[in-house]
Design brief:
- The complex is a heterodimer of chains A (317) and B (611).
- Chain A contains eleven helices and nine strands.
- Chain A is an alpha/beta fold and 317 residues long.
- Chain A has a nine-stranded mixed β-sheet with strand order 2-1-3-4-6-5-9-7-8, with helices on both faces.
- In chain A, β5, α7 (191-203) and β6 form a beta-alpha-beta unit.
- In chain A, α2 packs across α7 and α4 crosses α5.
- With 611 residues, chain B is of the alpha/beta class.
- Chain B is built from 19 helices and 21 strands.
- A seven-stranded mixed β-sheet of chain B has the order 9-8-10-11-13-12-19, with helices on both faces. In chain B, strands 2-3-1-4-5-6 form a six-stranded mixed β-sheet, sandwiched between helices. In chain B, strands 16-18-17-20-21 form a five-stranded mixed β-sheet, with helices on both faces.
- In chain B, β17 (491-498), α16 (502-514) and β18 form a beta-alpha-beta unit.
- The chains are: A alpha/beta (317), B alpha/beta (611).
Amino acid sequence: METSCSLLGCGTDDDDRSWGMEDYAGVLPRWCPGCGDHGILTSVERLLEAEQLAPERTVFVSGIGCSSRFPHYLKTYGFHGIHGRALPIATGVKLRRPDLDVFVVMGDGDCTSIGAGHWIHAVRYNMNMVALLLDNGIYGLTKNQTSPTTPQGHTSNTQPRGSYLIPLNPIAATLGVSNASFVAQTADWIPAHVYATLQAAYRHRGFSFVRILQRCPAYTADLFEEAVRNPKMIEMLVHPDGVDVPELDKIFTQKRVHDPKDLDTGRHLAEPADKIRLGVFFRDESHPRYEELRHQRVHTAQEKIARMNQEFDKYAV
Amino acid sequence: VPEHTVEIVSDSGEGAQKCGQAFGMVSAKMGNGVWTVEIIPAEIQPPPREPAGASGNRIRIGTKPVTNWGDAAHLVVAFNEQVLVARHRLEALHEDAIILVENMWKTHDDEDIRRQWVEVMDELSHASYRIIEVPMEEQCLTITDNPRRGKNMFVLGLLSCIYGRDVELIREMIRTQFRKKAPDVALRNIELMDLGYHWAEEHLDFRVDVSIEKPDTAMIVMNGNQALAMGAIASGMELCAMYPITPATSVSHYLGEIFEEFGGIVHQAEDEIAAAGVAIGSSYAGKVAFTVTSGPGLALKTEFIGLATMVEVPLVVLNVQRGGPSTGLPTKVEQSDLLACIYGQPGDAPKVVMAAATIEECFHMVITARRIAEALRCVVMVLTDANLATGVQPFARPALDPRWQAAPIDLSPVPEGAQPYGWDPELGLSRRFIPGQPGGLHTLTGLSHDENSKVAYDPESHERGCAMRSRKLAVFQETLKRPEIYGEDTGDLLIVGWGSTRGAIEEAVDRARAEGQKVSSLHLRFLSPLEPGLREIFAGFRKVATIEINYSDRLGDPHISAENRRYGQLAWLLRAQTLVDVDCWTRVPGEPLRPMSILEGIRSMMPGGRS
């Protein structure tokens, strides 16, 4: 990737600029007060500052939904696309411009419902990017409709007698896709854990999928209520190769050492349990990244013309 | 003779198409004018010996350039009587056609097959064909254990003898085709071809001489999808994002073979929607990309095409049309996507739509499309069809120009004060920034937005955005040339066409003029925006009508009146844009229009004639 960067004349060696958190802030967010998105935005700005990412080489791609307003509230390049289709756009960006840092922000409807097909294939492509699933278990922007991750029995405008099905499990689903490379879960009410998870995701070389559990203050305010009040409901998956935030040890006493290389245990841990598990379920950098598999050297116009003429010779009359 | 039309038909999998392609290719390479049309069933391997499974190729060759597939075949080679009778029933055979038919079925062990043979021969006996039985199976068995895989080469040999083709050239083509197989494969195929040649030499009492006038300019010969692929390379685009769909897919097959040698890649996406999204992502990041599809795929890309229009990211969409609606006629030609291309997006989504009339135009239009897409920051659609996709035709070898190719991406800082949509209020045009350019930070959005790409729902911003995206098309339209009329500038009837029907329309117009009719024709390349001067041109004629391969109601059919008649798609456009009472004659036969049937259409539409 360094090669592509220097080819494009944007190497970082001679770059003596530096950025503070405020340099990454876009327009004032218009999310509801109390929405988990605010805190996630702050964690993302912290990450950008900590990693000193050049704003012009950073691209945030989103779909449609409350959380997909994300790019507007950052000062980087951004693409607020269409519902469910953030991943194909991000794929196109990264495929032809591997020098860019690409982040994808999706809601639960975006990623696990209308865009579910792209989600599975993005995991397979395993491009080096960070995909955030901001999962509040409801459609917020369109005003309270059931999503695939809505808890069974939860009432909404489309299922006023309570949702009929057990919710889709995004972590288990992602772990089931061939080529899964980084799969983690965190929760909006534990900012230190969100930040540490984002950092691990960014530093991982491959497709980093992070599900962030959060509440919608308007429609799912009571979601995870018990876990928010009682830290014993949370089990932290910790490992030096995953996420471990020692400063949280006093509050979150339920810890389990889980080696993220262990896919079988990761899958087992992703199944529904009496506890909410946060941390890295699986991580493996050995899978090839699609943009590297498909990398092509840049050909000059004259080189192409010479080669085209050879091709035309085959069709000559 | 100045021209001749031959058809080769077999069951699917017996290789009549390969044989036809080779015959067309060698004829073109020798300097004949050529136009080929594939006869393709939708299935890979339909049941054998069924009229509906007929698979093959029609090749029309001439001393002069050939512009369409003609009316009927003068010579037919059939691998069984069932596929032969299928062509007879479609009136594809000339009344005096010579038929060469495999005779193994006549004496087949199966009684039913022998009976079917007799029935077909009886049906054909009412026409004045000359039927010659050929022992293809028996002959091929002298060389191969599996004549099913070798008969097509035997037939290629027959045709080479009849038409006096350059046998050494054919041998060379066979060697190239089988270069990846064991050496004896090519050898056996050449033996089979030679066998056919000698059999014809000994047993056939006729030869066809379509003399050759070597063109004085360099020519190449390829099919329309190959031309699209080469055009994409010549345009400098380096990403083809696609999902398999007939008849568009072979563009990606060809690119899959060679694109990487040009630094390009074919990305087979998880679906049609993603293919459009990946192309848009690449274009957004500075590398203009294209997606290639057909009707059902185009329908799925609709939302992304609307997005590209809204965020003014350049995008090239190649649409190889087939019969619709829905899955329709996957392998067959139609021109019924025109209005879907122009108006298919919910909301107002102005875009450039153009249509190729020839295989040569397939090549050049992709280059033009990329340039327009970048200059106008818009979506450009290029329409071709199943006829152009698989048809083979020689054309002038393009003199490749480096300026056709996209410039390397520019990551220089954005001038201070420049806006992501810094529209020139007169022109609607603006400069685009791409990720990596310092000073250009912004977020594109499919929501209504202002010059700074900030979400803006106020009436003024939305009106302005819509106006700017539309204005640039008007500005572009002013740069287009007035289309040239084929024939006189005035007369009784002007035929307007678009796409692959051009050659057939012009041939029909020639015949109508020879009959004394005052007919001219006009062929449009740009459909959105429409080419200039149409009202003025139309004023020179008593009547204007389109000829198209799409559905329209016919006056006189039950319930059809002037108040509810649905017109052909170009006719709708022309009526709306020019306020001229444009009529139409359209058919949806799933095959290219024949000049003779167009001529009948012209006769029926002559002012004062039958309507």
